[in-house]
Design brief:
203 residues, alpha+beta, Cytochrome p450, two-stranded antiparallel ribbon, 8 helices, 12% strand, elongated
């Protein structure tokens, strides 16, 4: 599990970021323009620092959108209901019940993300008050007090690497038609299925 949490998820997230950038050249151009403008103004080092990357709004939007559209973890983030039970969405759930939700489900809710929920559109994260509201539903690292313990180090690695590589190298996508997106690890915790049922969900 340490290997999965420490490297696999970050690698998958980076792949999603670069793949979506290369599939959407106008987004890539806009991000590079932001980085070049900041470098020309002396606000980006050759090796981008954490503070410098954090101050790049479009970079942050691209990263959030890439992890929303293709979350590294597709399984259900499970929690145990306290022994006294609790009300969830208007229904009483007995204590000891395992409940959970998948980032892929939350990140595909049209009532949250709009009718274009299945489109890669970083601008949605920069649209005024809506941006802070969307972050409430960003579930790539889980949420609440049980948020992934490696979230901050993973985000730091990704934002530094993406910004630095884009300023140093040109990228292009090869054989895009052979690339397919799928989530192959979704755990269902419903009474009608076994505890560890695994379902394939196309994206």
């Amino acid at each position: 599990s340490n290997v999965f949490a420490g490297s696999d998820t970050t690698a998958i997230a980076l792949r999603s970021i670069f793949l979506n950038l290369l599939r959407h050249p106008h987004v890539l151009s806009k991000l590079i323009a932001e980085l070049e403008e900041r470098r020309a103004a002396g606000r980006l080092s050759n090796t981008v620092t954490f503070q410098e990357a954090e101050a790049c709004p479009y970079l942050q939007a691209v990263m959030h959108e890439a992890l929303r559209i293709f979350s590294p973890a597709g399984f259900s983030f499970d929690r145990d209901v306290p022994k006294e039970g609790m009300i969830i969405s208007g229904k009483f759930v007995p204590g000891g019940t395992v409940v959970g939700s998948s980032p892929w489900v939350i990140h595909s809710l049209p009532e949250v993300w709009g009718a274009d929920f299945d489109k890669f559109r970083p601008e949605r994260w920069l649209e005024g008050e809506n941006s802070s509201e969307l972050k409430r539903f960003f579930f790539a690292f889980g949420g609440g007090t049980r948020t992934c313990i490696g979230k901050n180090i993973s985000w730091l690695e990704m934002e530094k690497l993406v910004a630095t590589l884009l300023m140093r190298y040109d990228f292009e996508l090869v054989e895009d038609e052979n690339i397919s997106d799928s989530c192959r690890w979704v755990m269902l915790s419903e009474p009608s299925y076994s505890r560890n049922s695994t379902w394939n969900v196309s994206h």
